[in-house]
From TrEMBL:
NCBIfam families: YaaA_near_RecF. GO terms for molecular function: RNA binding. It comes from Clostridium cadaveris. It comes from the Bacteria. Keywords: RNA-binding. CDD domains: S4 (cd00165). InterPro entries: RNA-bd_S4-rel_YaaA, S4_RNA-bd_sf. The keyword RNA-binding applies. This is Ribosome-associated protein. SUPFAM superfamilies: Alpha-L RNA-binding motif.
Length: 68
């Protein structure tokens, strides 16, 4: 599992996908989210603006990213 540090109280899901390198563009992040390819804490999330906080785990393409 990859641990990704953020410096704010929360980060939106689409921004997080760019921050951790899972998506190179915002449009790519939007595509993954709308396609149902992204899980947050084990559940598929289709909300681009979903607020992620410390301890949340995001899964995409067989990779896991934990927010620390």
């Amino acid at each position: 599992m990859n641990e990704i540090k953020i410096d704010t109280d929360f980060i939106k899901l689409d921004s997080f996908l760019k921050w951790c390198g899972a998506a190179s563009l915002g449009s790519e992040a939007k595509f993954y989210i709308q396609n149902g390819d992204v899980k947050v804490n084990g559940e598929v999330s289709t909300q681009r603006g979903k607020k992620l906080r410390f301890g949340d785990v995001v899964e995409i393409d067989g990779e896991s990213y934990k927010i620390i």
